[in-house]
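User: I would dearly like some help making sense of a protein record. This is the protein in question:
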Amino acid sequence: MKPQTIRVGGYAPRDSVHSRSVDRFAEDIKTLSNGEVDVEITYNVMDSGQPATALFEMLESGELTWCYYSSSYLGSKVPELNALEVPFLFDTVTDAHAALDGEFGAALSQAVRDRAGYEVLGFWDNGMRHLTNSVRDIRSPKDCEGLRIRLQPNEIHEALASSWGMIPMTAELSAGIEMIKRGDVDAQENPLANTVAYGVDHQHITLTAHLYGARGLFANSAEMDNFGEVADLVRASARTAIEYQREAAAAYELELRKRLEAEGRTVIELTNEERSEFANTADEVIANSLSTVDPTLRALLG
């Protein structure tokens, strides 16, 4: 085997589940290749003062072999990925994993290859997204009214927040973190892991699970095509990392909830009826977002 160097990039702190999963990838591919494959890792591109989106430029230039990134940021280039942005699409992360590992995920991966030119190595779990805010407890959409919320630049996310009476303020991640720190917004929505990693200190946390977050593992397809047998090792090691990441993310979610409660934060777990009220209030947004999903993809969701 010809010695190769694999370059991987991310945008999470060094001790995060995502960074530890990159480490797992590196360990696995070194073992499978008998040490013939070396791995260079950029754990958090934002540490160098670059925006997280610089990862795509690095990927396309060949500076990176693969990176992970939230699928929502590719929705404008690969509209098929917006199927994952349908609110309340999955009831549990187990349901999401089954869909992403099956024909639904395969169809999304092909769309990414066709439209963006990236090979998808699989999907990491970015968890269910929950509301946090610095103002008051939230148990119903009425409690959301008038709150300014930082969101990813995504039209569906904006429409969802607006349906609950919130004031959307979109920003790329690094800028969004600064908005939250300065108090320019009252609320944000993220999985608990991201909320903690980004230093959000909001007192009020509501486990709305209104959106499922997937982070695609996007590879430079030209480099993968030229790798020969090494490409198969990359794919196999990525699969190992995916299984590791999902298990670690589930355990970390439970750990973080206990930690936040111990810190005195208010963590509200909605009843089925309360969560349904959030979904019912956003029924037009859900219907509209579903109508934009390719019928073939909708059929694969069952």
